[in-house]
């Protein structure tokens, strides 16, 4: 359904673009983007509980803008949200199951639990030491 721009002038494509451009690079923009993805993945209106944008911003500050897996400093434009208990293993989109991570760390972890991921990393380090 198209937006009635005469009735809602703040929602014209140009106005929306200006609003997005003004927020680009901020943690609030990253939280909004991440929340939208969580909402869609959770099934929209028929979803279970999901973290709010305000909770995601608070989580960012709680982590001091650092990766929850590596401690590396993050930027809002590149940070990923990671499920501590992967969705494939029953993890929820709730704030207690989420953390901000570096994209490479999150992609490397994939659907592993933390324990499985750390075991895999230990095996990689051991193999490297044997070379």
Features:
5 helices, mainly alpha, two-stranded antiparallel ribbon, 131 residues, DNA Binding (I), subunit A
In words, what does this structure look like?
A two-stranded antiparallel sheet has the order 1-2. The longest helix is centred in the last third of the chain and has 17 residues. The protein is built from five helices and two strands. The model has no long low-confidence stretch (mean pLDDT about 80). The termini are far apart. Helices cover about 45% and strands about 5% of the residues. Helix 2 packs across helix 3. The protein has one domain: DNA Binding (I), subunit A (Orthogonal Bundle). With about 130 residues, it is mostly helical. The radius of gyration is 18 Å and the shape is elongated.
Give the SSE map.
Layout lengths: L12 H11 L3 H15 L11 H10 L17 E4 L14 E4 L1 H7 L4 H17 L1
Antiparallel strand pairs: 1-2
Helix pairs in contact: 2-3
In short:
The chain is mostly helical and 131 residues long. The chain contains five helices and two strands; from the N terminus they run αααββαα.
């Amino acid at each position: 359904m198209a937006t009635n721009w005469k009735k809602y002038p703040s929602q014209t494509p140009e106005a929306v673009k200006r609003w997005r451009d003004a927020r680009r690079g901020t943690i609030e923009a990253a939280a909004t983007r991440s929340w939208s993805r969580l909402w869609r993945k959770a099934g929209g209106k028929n979803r279970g509980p999901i973290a709010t944008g305000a909770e995601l911003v608070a989580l960012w500050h709680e982590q001091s803008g650092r990766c929850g897996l590596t401690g590396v400093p993050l930027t809002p434009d590149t940070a990923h949200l990671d499920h501590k208990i992967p969705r494939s293993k029953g993890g929820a989109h709730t704030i207690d199951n989420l953390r901000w991570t570096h994209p490479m760390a999150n992609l490397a972890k994939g659907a592993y639990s933390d324990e499985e991921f750390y075991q895999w990393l230990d095996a990689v380090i051991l193999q490297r030491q044997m070379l």
